[in-house]
Amino acid sequence: MYNVNKKMLIYIVFLGLMVILIGNSTIVAETKPDIVKMVKLLQEDKDLDIGDWSVLAREINKEIATKQEFESEVYALKQKYPQFQWHRKDDASGWKAEALTYNIDSGLTESIKIMTTKEELDTVTYVIYEVKGQKWKKGNPAFFTTTFQNRVNDLFIGAPSIFSCIKGSINDNMDSVLNSKTEDLLDMFQAREIESVHETNFTSISAHSTLFKQPLTKEKLNLQFGLRTEGLGERTNFVVGTPIITFEY
């Protein structure tokens, strides 16, 4: 009887551990950064080449309203991030501090901006953290689950708005590439078109994707992409972003 109960206990503990592990893997999958989701999907289409990309986090900091509070925050961040090169610029509209660092091994450029300005009767402070790359590397997903998340926790009070954007080109110069790739991208991102602009050499789509959780409007717009070709036989360029495109196109 003792052996049977012991075996049953071991089985229950094992089953409980499996449930915890499965639960944790589900949480990790759900919290995978948007940029990582986007790259993975785009890489599955062999006609697409990924180029420049950017992830920008932005928040209004309501705890910084005076110059003394601004100076104190900038000083604290300088101590925390000595590897960044800091620059100050004050003018009649407000105060601004910007920091930059480039990692030669990863190819990543990081920037931190703190801007305090007068808007109507209030003093408003924006905190912006951005990461840029000229191509996607294997180590980038790990960066976003560790370093990027640590930076976000340090820099922001709450949950900032995060904008992810990717540029690239399409290895297909068929006349119908704009129409065909528009449909491919909607399918790829499990998206429903909300509004669009169609011209001879240019297409822009705003949509709702079930893959992303940060809506921008009441229509739940959380995905934009644009396609542009220079003409017959020329390569087509694309840009895609969530919840909106932040690159010029």
UniProtKB/TrEMBL annotation:
Leader sequence segment: none
Pfam families: DUF1779 (PF08680)
Transmembrane parts of this sequence: none
SUPFAM superfamilies found in the cross-reference section: YwmB-like
Protein name per UniProt: TATA-box binding
Source organism of the structure: Peribacillus simplex
